Every structure is written in structure tokens, then in C-alpha cells.
Amino acid sequence: MASAIIAAAALVTVGLITAPPAASAQLTEVTGFGTNPTNLRMHLYVPDGVAARPALLVAVHYCTGSGPAFYSGTEFASLADRHKFIVVYPSATRSGSCFDVSSPQSLTHNGGSDPVGIVSMVRYVQQRYNADPERTYVTGASSGGMMTNVLIGAYPDVFKAGASFMGVPFGCFATTDGSSWNSTCANGQLIKTAQQWGDQVRAAYPGYSGARPRMQIWHGTEDATLRYPNFQEQIKQWTNVHGLSQTPSLTDQPRSGWTRTRYGGTGTKAPVEAISLQGVGHSLPQGGMAAMVIDFFGLSEGGTDPTPTITPTVTPPAGACQVTYQMNTWNTGFTAAVTIANTSTTALSSWSLAFTLPAGQSVTSAWNASISPSSGQVTARNVSYNGAIAPGASASFGFQATHGGNTGKPPAFTLNGTACTS
Questions:
Q1: For residue 346, which of 322, 321, 323 has the smallest C-alpha distance?
Q2: Do residues 164 and 140 lie in contact, with contact meaning Cβ atoms separated by under 8 Å?
Q3: Ranges of residues in the chain whose predicted pLDDT is under 70
Q4: Closest C-alpha to 56, from 111, 137, 112
Q5: Residue 142 annotated to the active site
Q6: Which residue in 142, 245, 276, 283 is the catalytic one?
Q7: At what angle do helices 289-297 and 76-83 cross, to 10 degrees?
């Protein structure tokens, strides 16, 4: 792809766990698997004793990597031995060994390029090994994490769920000049509304009206290659695709430094799940993370991947407004995701939310709102497209800020001069 992400491949491999399977099954290369416009290579791992109707996982490597490297450097093959699913490992063949996640062809259903070749691999395994189309999944890291977003966006009829490590939203890397690198996206500077991100996904496959794949998102706060704001942008995109609020149904910390949020449900197979990793760079997946991916897919349970029950948004208590303020912090900074719920009976045509940032905190950038001043008592004001909030509806915005060690939250919020609950 580009020199920056290629150079970062050395960092990616730091997080990979060498865990080759102990069984007699071997990784094998498959040729002639179907339409393959970019001459991708295909490696296949079929565990011993695989079921008659096995699940299928596509595992997509990082730049400078390969299918065999991702096989030997991650835990998916050993998990396949345990849970008896098949794994496909595609290999990119262009210079730098990055996947195409930027061309118009790759971002269009059946448009061509790498995604068509990967879907051909899936079809081959479904036909040759009777793999279950209802249990077909994709995961990947860095370039592979970006490809995961592309595949579940453009091929919702093929994949039931995806898990993206260090990725970016579908369409974020789009280019029209023939290049494969988008610095604005990589640097976390491409900020859109949830609706805009969702519309990009829907435009990839016009007329599609079926179920959308569930999505799991992983990102480290110190990622210097595909920067951390891409984490929140992916959340915005996939919650919108599923028609969900950006307010989590569940927030917890499965491990120290990890913040996990679930949207549209509180169980393991919520429609969207996101894991923020404090202080972690471009070095995923790390030990144990693959097992959480398998749990999210439902592969550790066997059987089908049922459509999750959507948990309705709880009606806020009576009053004028309610504010949800969620922080993801790291050593010198943080991002905040803010949702304003209109709990009154009067529609708002515009809004301004006033609050006081704790000492030492200073806003550096914002999306879906303008914020001034940068510190102390600040006011966030709507932008042109999100000023109206109907009774019972909500608006969301976010910002990135630095801190001097104080990671506290604002003690109170005032919307258009009226105090809110929080």
C-alpha cells in the first residue's frame, strides 16, 4: 500500500502469537479456485475431524505479510483445531503485499479487484467442503482489518460477521487517482456523520435488503499507522448500518486497559462490539484476542449464528435533556463521545451544550460539533446537519483532547441554558 503502513508491518508482527496447530492437518495452497482478477494466492487449513457442515473463517494478513505468515503467527488455526472450522488465508501479490481497499472496484459489490478473488475462495470452500454459508466470517489485521470492513460492507450476502484489528471504516481509504494510500484517513482526519458512513456502505450494493453482518472492532489508542480516531468512525458506521444508537448498551473492562462497548445488545453476539486498548500501538492481535473473535462469531459454541435480539434504547428519565459522555483515555490524551437526548416534549431546532472540562484538559479537534474555547468552560454547538433534535431523539458529537494527568469527566451539562441529567 504505502511506505508508512509497510514499515509498520514490523510493529504488527510484535503482537502476533506463534501458535502452530499440534494436529496432523497442514496448511495447503489451492490454485484454480475461481475468478481472481488480481492473482491472489489462497492457502487453506482444514482441521482433522472437521464437521460435515463446517463454519468458515477468512483470515486476512497485514502489509508485507502473507497467508502462511498469518497462519503461523496467529491463533486462528489452533482455535480451528479445537472448534472444527475451516480457515482460508488469502495472500496479496502486489508490491508491499497490501490488499486493495481503496479502488472503486474493491468498494463495489462484484466490482472486481481483491474482494472478488477472496469471495471466490469462499465459494470454492463452500462447494468443495460443504462449508456453511450461514456461518462464514472474516477477520484481519491492519491492511487485513481494512479489508474486513470492505468485505462485510460490499458482500453482506457472503459474510455473517467480521472482526477488524487496526482497521478503518468502509470507504475511508477510497481514492480516485490510482493510488492506494489515503493519508487523511490513515491519520484519523476523515470524520463523517454516522449517516454518511452508513450511506457509503449501502451504496456499495444498491438494492440489497437482507441482514447486515455483525461487526467487532479492535484498536489501540497509540496506533501511529492507522490512528485511533478511526476506531470511533467505525463504530459510527456500523451502528448506523444496523440502525442503532451510538450509545452503548453495555460498557465494561474485560481486561486492564481494555474498554469494551456493545451496541444493540449486551450479549457476546451483539450487532456491534468495540474494544479500545489503552496504550497499545499498531501491534494486533495479541494473545487471547483471537479467542474473543471466535466467541463473537459464535464458533466456540457450534451450531448456527442466530440473529441477536436488539435491545431497545431505554427511555431517559423525565426532564429536558440527558447527556451520555464516554471517554477513551491514554497516557496524554483522550477522545470523548457525547450523546444529547432530548427528553422534553419540545423539538429543538438548534443546540448548544455547555460544560466545564477538568483542569489540564484541552480540546484539539472535534467532529459533528464546533467547540470553543478549547479548555475551561466550553460550549459545543451543532453543525449544519444535526441541529434538529425531535422529542425522544438524540444527537451525537465527539472530540479529541489532551490532558495533564486528570482524566475526569465534566461534572454537569447545560443544554440551551437548561441543566441536563447525566
A1: 321
A2: yes
A3: 1-23, 302-319
A4: 137
A5: yes
A6: 142
A7: 40
